[in-house]
User: What shape does this take?
Amino acid sequence: ALRFEFGDLPISVARDAVKLRSLFLAYRDKIPKKRQAQFRFAVLSVVCSDAVDRGVLPINPCLNSRNSRLYRANRTEVLWTTDHLRVLASEAGSDLMFAVLFAYFTGQRQGDLLRTVYNNTANHGQHPWYDMDSGFLYLKTQKSGAYVKVKIVEPLRSRIDVRVNELMRRSTSEQKKTGYRILLNSHGRPWTTDGFRSSFQKARNRAGVRDTASGVFLDFHDLRGTAVTNLCLAGCTTIEVAAVTGHSLKTIDEMLEKHYLGETAKRSVSAMEKWENQLATDTKSSKFFSEVAGKKNRKTKHYQRMAAIS
Assistant: This one.
């Protein structure tokens, strides 16, 4: 699309930073989908940055533009439910659903899960790995570099153990071909990032898996936020949740506030309960408030009499 739009752009226009900036912004603003518009503008910025390095352009006209970020993803309120999983399972293959459940019960990112292996020695500890003897998942997250140790719970552990036992029965050469990965596609090969994303989106779209409140399609990454919420509903503290997912404490608090599960909401409930208890012990005040709350307005009584007469 960008080549079609700007492929024959004269070099004289390209070297005029003001004109080029105006041209790019006009192109961006006419794209109906904000996320796509932002992505294409970012690609133009990368191309122009390379042109600056090569001496073709004097400056990058895409930098420092106000409101250049048109799309901001905020999906902290979007959660997966068991009903969503059930609907997705009707369209997704078993290999894809295995990966979805892996994320649902561990709260880990897609990239880390696709790299998870069952033979840590063969991979020299470079990948997340599952220890079948202890039932723990060990990993250093790619994004934050946090070290995480996750206990795999049922029913996920049984399914992983079955998969690992099956893979370990293969010949050494076959295991090397798969890189000792646990998550494989329908062809028995490790998932690529693009391949997995495409397969997931196709199955999700066919199943029509959408968030009930907002109506947006659920993403694979939403499973991570779902795990955070589920852990807190189970009674886990913020520190305990962070130990599982690798999130910072601040991030988890921000996510939970969206679902009225964070510390602010808890303190609010605690404060009102304390006030309620204090009022219960103050008999004089309690009697007064009860009388006021139960007292009917004179005008209300008048209107009721008039309504009865009519």
